[in-house]
Amino acid sequence: MVNVLRFGMVGGAVGSFIGHVHRKGASFDEQARLVAGCFSSSYERTLATGEQLGLDKERLYRDHCEMAEKEAAREDGIDYVIICTPNSNHYSAAKAFLQHGIHVVCDKPLTITVEEAQELVQLAEEKGLLFGVTYAFSQCPAVKQAQLMVQNGELGEIQVVMAEYPMGSLAEPVELEQGRIIPWRMVPEHAGISNCVGDIGTHIEHTVSYITGLEIAELCAQLDRFGGPQRALDTNAHILLKYKNGAVGNYWCSQVAIGYDNPLQVRIFGTKGTIEWCQEIPNYLIVRKLGRPPQILARGHTYLYPEVAQMTRLAAGHSEGYYEMFANFYRKFNNALCKQKQGLELTAADLDFPGVRDGLRGVKFIHRCVESSQQGAVWVEFD
Amino acid sequence: MVNVLRFGMVGGAVGSFIGHVHRKGASFDEQARLVAGCFSSSYERTLATGEQLGLDKERLYRDHCEMAEKEAAREDGIDYVIICTPNSNHYSAAKAFLQHGIHVVCDKPLTITVEEAQELVQLAEEKGLLFGVTYAFSQCPAVKQAQLMVQNGELGEIQVVMAEYPMGSLAEPVELEQGRIIPWRMVPEHAGISNCVGDIGTHIEHTVSYITGLEIAELCAQLDRFGGPQRALDTNAHILLKYKNGAVGNYWCSQVAIGYDNPLQVRIFGTKGTIEWCQEIPNYLIVRKLGRPPQILARGHTYLYPEVAQMTRLAAGHSEGYYEMFANFYRKFNNALCKQKQGLELTAADLDFPGVRDGLRGVKFIHRCVESSQQGAVWVEFD
Amino acid sequence: MVNVLRFGMVGGAVGSFIGHVHRKGASFDEQARLVAGCFSSSYERTLATGEQLGLDKERLYRDHCEMAEKEAAREDGIDYVIICTPNSNHYSAAKAFLQHGIHVVCDKPLTITVEEAQELVQLAEEKGLLFGVTYAFSQCPAVKQAQLMVQNGELGEIQVVMAEYPMGSLAEPVELEQGRIIPWRMVPEHAGISNCVGDIGTHIEHTVSYITGLEIAELCAQLDRFGGPQRALDTNAHILLKYKNGAVGNYWCSQVAIGYDNPLQVRIFGTKGTIEWCQEIPNYLIVRKLGRPPQILARGHTYLYPEVAQMTRLAAGHSEGYYEMFANFYRKFNNALCKQKQGLELTAADLDFPGVRDGLRGVKFIHRCVESSQQGAVWVEFD
Amino acid sequence: MVNVLRFGMVGGAVGSFIGHVHRKGASFDEQARLVAGCFSSSYERTLATGEQLGLDKERLYRDHCEMAEKEAAREDGIDYVIICTPNSNHYSAAKAFLQHGIHVVCDKPLTITVEEAQELVQLAEEKGLLFGVTYAFSQCPAVKQAQLMVQNGELGEIQVVMAEYPMGSLAEPVELEQGRIIPWRMVPEHAGISNCVGDIGTHIEHTVSYITGLEIAELCAQLDRFGGPQRALDTNAHILLKYKNGAVGNYWCSQVAIGYDNPLQVRIFGTKGTIEWCQEIPNYLIVRKLGRPPQILARGHTYLYPEVAQMTRLAAGHSEGYYEMFANFYRKFNNALCKQKQGLELTAADLDFPGVRDGLRGVKFIHRCVESSQQGAVWVEFD
After folding, report:
1. pTM to 2 decimal places
2. ipTM beyond cut 0.85
3. Which of residues 269-308 of A touch B (CB under 8 A)?
4. Is C322–B320 a contact, with Cβ atoms under 8 angstroms apart?
5. Mean pLDDT per 10-residue interval, chain B, length 383 residues
6. In whole angstroms, what is the distance from residue D373 CA to residue D238 CA?
7. Contact of D193 with D303, CB cutoff 8 Å
8. With an 8 Å Cβ cutoff, are B294 and D296 in contact?
């Protein structure tokens, strides 16, 4: 295959949930192949992972700096790197690869500080490198349909946004169990200044932004650390928002919502209609238009926008899920990279995947929420 | 029937939506009979209504003062009055009947001002009269089940409350239609200082309070008048709350949520479990407990608390709805009144219906929301 | 009220589930009033019921013959009788009232034998008396909408019907519990030749017939007596059908379907579209049209047929249920009777409630199912 | 990777829906790699597919006989072949590979005639070769949970089975569109004696059999060719069944059910409980137990049987779909084959995937349905 891209990974050792998802996603459409990695801070784990995945031992690295340098020097070096480590390593890893001219895909949230994110934006843009940030939920076909409906005015002017992401995963003090390692998302050194907003609140922010294009003017956030006094970071957040167009929003994310697995839900209310999407039933989009009965749009039908058809692989009724969202992200990223490698100009349509500026905005969002809450849940300006 | 109570009505002429519901509800279990009324500010409409309902013409009155006075003077005078006029008349009507020693049922919100509500509380308690306020949603059997589960600790300690009441009824500028009378809820003189919070937000406040018993410490409310510049009152509100026990809440009510009819929804999240109820599917209660699959409890089953069985008339699976919620309110009110007339002491269980103090709290809630919003959506103390 | 009709009841003593529903339904719109009764085979129970309902003692009767005779002789005698006894009494009671010129409403199934049902049809038609049979589910507004959609060709030609009525009420051998009275529906002398088909299968037959107008050509039925060897009648039935227009149908009813309360569900598949209605969520109708997303129609909206609006009392989103279905049946029956009493001609629209011929067809359906099953689940002709 | 298996494909050229699904499924867990193929009856299409997938040209074959012979002769020949051609080719292709000692995975229905299927069973068993048949729906984790619940007696004795598979894909006469090729499933030469039962009815049969282990004693089937007189094969079927244990069943499959995509649904009713699964919401299983509220079990939770955990890759709430069902089939098949290649004895647990005897039973099911229907929908014995 002439056009198959080569990628490496930082993080994502075998046994890592999200590492597997990235690997499957990047190669789902047989456009890219894993060839190198620094999968863990433990070189032994990197070696074991590399062996299991059939990689050449000389392309298994002790740290990301070595990897960036050596891969950049190879004739057959990687086209891009996927960074899926704990948050605190994103910045230095991404910077290293960018500096060596290697394109980057990085997990969210992009960095710990706003300044780091700004630096990555500047570096990627100066170097002309592609930089994707894996807010995968927005790559669901139904979300694309939602975005196109908004863009085409089917909902009129947006007035209200309701979005939530309730999980029950930290309802119990899991970190107090004997011998258990505290999940890194709960440790400030690895996760940054927020756990709940940083991990899942940022998905709300991105998905709403992707669908509506609304820009946040101000927000007011109340963060709580439910689950025990030992908790150093938030596990629940309520966020009110005012957007620049005059609309208002209400986001809720929680990790103490018992019985909820992962139902990120976004509802957009406009002057002509309403849409509703939920990540746990991702193949459907509920649409309510003025004076008409609610409709349930389903993936795979010709009544959807043509762009949506390109984001699906199975006939209607054969369910697609989380892997396919990543596959859609990577299909767009791989396509854009192939085109750029051929010296072609990239259009906005080519870049229709979450990028480094989305990553920066996400980091700002986390910081604004924490600032607001620390001051007593007051309104703070976003920019 | 020796024990059949007699009631009168202020407001609720034939053609009035809520008037019919009150009438059916009060007599649903054949415990009370309508015998008098001042159904409208138009005496002609009162006469026409009385005739259609088969009432004695001498018990049809021009105004509520005349009615209170004359009914109080009769041997066979009404036991209680139902007030279902626009909000602005509640206070004077209720006061008139209380002063004449007649028990009162009044629609919500109780009054326009907090002072008026306080005065009614004082008057009713001094006189020893029963005073019900028809927050009917809390009288749904599934809501009672929810309350008992909280009281019995099945959910542990409450940490988060999410509640919403979206409607689409004012999505269009209905008040601008040629020749159309502006709905009184949109007119400050009749509705008071709020439309959306006053009409439906207050239902959220009551239902949550009834289920959880949580007391609001502070709230922060953002009210908007979506639907056109001609609107003098709110049509959408987002309210963040802190309760005295440390829990946080998030209420949303809207009349511009296109495609939504009436789905008041309440979700309560505790340290041991979660419950969810929605008014449009009122016969079911979704329960999620730590480590166990979600359950759907249905009305009419023996796995519910025994008190819940008393609030239902039909076998499981035969749906009950809005009328039956009113019927449950009135069954409790009628029972309490019969017992009081027999000179018996009323217990807390006898008074398990929304009363004048619930009405007062509701009026305070409306005022706090408006105050907060007018100051820029800042936090205000509830008491 | 000049126009208030007077009705009596045979069966339906206080404590009877369906008796209360009939009483509420007949008087729901204040068009008719209960004045006489023979509520039980026990005169004591009849007296107790009459006293509780405030009836005149002289209008409480020992048997239905006495009641028919005496009421027919009174100036202020009943306009119609409601018969809600066990099945085996329907025939003789209905016959007695018809012979005395009194209109009849009777519960389903109409009679035990086909011949009895035919005799009632003949008698009612000869006498020119109204005869309603309370297949109440077809009186739900959403069912009317379904019927009108079929009649107006919105579904094209009907090809397939799927309908089911699963209940779990007889999953356990309740009749073996110490001291428990066997429910009359399980006793051939009271219920006739079928329990499950007779009680709930007949609702399927009627609802499908009401919506589609399809006539059954042949059927093939497999009846089983799950629940223990002591059972003398069926508790589960699968029925395949061929209709005269070439469509095929599949009905299933069961009383051993654990966890199901009462979800009578009907799905109609035509060449242009599909509709789906379920009794447990009665306010909604799901419509699927060729090439378009499924829609959820809700009661109370202007996009429904105008005739549907007349069958509802509450605004959209305020749920209506089982009582309102009976109220709709009785509203039509009461209206028709008033009109007939005024000497006016009744149109087909006036008679749009289940009548004696529907009752006859239902009894035939039960008999054909039992015949087919007894012969080894072979195809039998319907007529 | 030492242990990576090599597979080839017959059928499944690029552009084929199911070909892609098989390819992704077989290699989902990086246990097997495609190395050879005869993807189409057109050698040009085979070459184009091979090139796109990066295969060695010498391993692209003109027909399956050549492929079987040459691959069998290679040192690095394929371990197994995947056959996903139209039905009529399954038999000869499978036979060719078995005769050359190559393991087989074949799409369903296994063959056109019962005799062919019997021959394949005999051949595979004589040769000691693995033979999988891709009834993928049974490989959904929720279906495994259902099976284990039945096996562990959680539902008691099974009494009733309700299963359906409605689709709307042939509601319109798509085969009459100008210039359109008739889908091979509608052509007897390619599809065999049935379209609807053969394509989707057989999925019902397998899924029910996999969950319950019930054996069919007799069945009675009504097949119809809705959709136009030009149709040579069935598009709708109703099937009543009696199982050897005394239970009864009711299967419905349709391709003219407008608005339905792919909701294969299976409900199993036992003396202690009921389960319900639907392919369009595959991550959930609804369980109803005697006297308790219905529960919704979700993939990924510890309350499921441990065997179920092995069939899932993502955390609860991150949806899995159709690809993962195939991946589960192939994971088991690949594991079994690796074990067999190591000379180890295979246990029943190793062979917990649909095999050649399931394929034979499926073909018999199709034939019995057609026989019954042709005789007028009479009861026919299954064996």
Report:
1. 0.96
2. yes
3. 269-274, 288-290, 294
4. yes
5. 83 90 92 95 96 93 98 97 96 98 98 98 98 97 98 98 97 85 88 97 98 98 96 97 98 98 98 97 96 97 94 93 97 97 95 98 98 98 97
6. 10
7. no
8. yes
